[in-house]
């Protein structure tokens, strides 16, 4: 299994011959409130051979309308059921909505939608493939539901936000420590690092490196793998 950071919350997961893209976002400028801190490692045109797309929610930095419009109608776009209509409006030709804790098999993979706490119609995903279990959190605050995820499988890799802004939209350093304790993943790969508030007053001092130090200070068993755009990690 190999995970490549494309940028922000867009990751490319290759496992058991399948290719999965999470929260596709290929914009390079951001929006009036947030700037993109680094361009994606590859353009949207590089992912035409994707087998499965996961969309956790439909905020502008997690769904790329141009990519979805160009995507073949044979490629399932998995999304929380209550957000399926929004994903379809964003251009998905083959949206598959799953309710919280509902699972569906795609070849040798099993995808389960899990809850998320976020100011949007959102969810997360558990991917079971090659005898491994990956948790892709999307955008979420810490929640008691995380302990329930571990009843489904032992988390090998957790892809989670670990920093936030002064108007918090995801977990920050401290809250993600609570998530690591609840989930007990073997590895944490920080995501949601590709945008930054344009207004300096809205920024915090949270960093993925700071989160890694907190994990070490709390003597948690999880390894923290920091991936920059274009970097890959294999398990």
Explain the overall architecture:
The chain has helices spanning about 65-70, 85-90, 145-150, 175-185, 210-215; strands at about 1-5, 10-15, 20, 35, 50-55, 75-80, 95-100, 105, 110-115, 125-130, 130-135, 155-160, 185-190, 195, 225, 230-235. The protein has about 240 residues and is an alpha/beta fold. The protein has one domain (about 1-235): 4-Layer Sandwich (Metallo-beta-lactamase, Chain A), CATH 3.60.15.10. The strands form three sheets. A seven-stranded mixed sheet has the order 7-6-5-3-2-1-16. Helix 4 (about 175-185) crosses helix 5 (about 210-215). The longest helix has 11 residues, at about 175-185. The N and C termini lie close together (about 5 Å). The mean pLDDT is about 95.
Looking at the overall shape, the CATH architecture is 4-Layer Sandwich
The CA-CA distance between the termini, in Å, is 5 Å
Averaged pLDDT:
97
Radius of gyration: 16 Å
Into how many domains do the coordinates divide? 1
Give a summary of the structure in a few sentences.
This protein is α/β, with parallel strands linked by helices.
Question: How do the helices and strands line up, and which of them pair or pack?
Answer:
Blueprint: E1 2-7, E2 10-15, E3 18-22, E4 34-36, E5 52-54, H1 65-70, E6 77-80, H2 84-89, E7 95-98, E8 103-106, E9 109-114, E10 124-129, E11 132-136, H3 145-149, E12 157-161, H4 173-183, E13 187-191, E14 195-197, H5 208-217, E15 223-224, E16 232-234
Parallel strand pairs: 3-5, 5-6, 6-7, 11-12, 12-13, 13-15
Antiparallel strand pairs: 1-2, 1-16, 2-3, 4-14, 8-9, 9-10, 10-11
Helix pairs in contact: 4-5
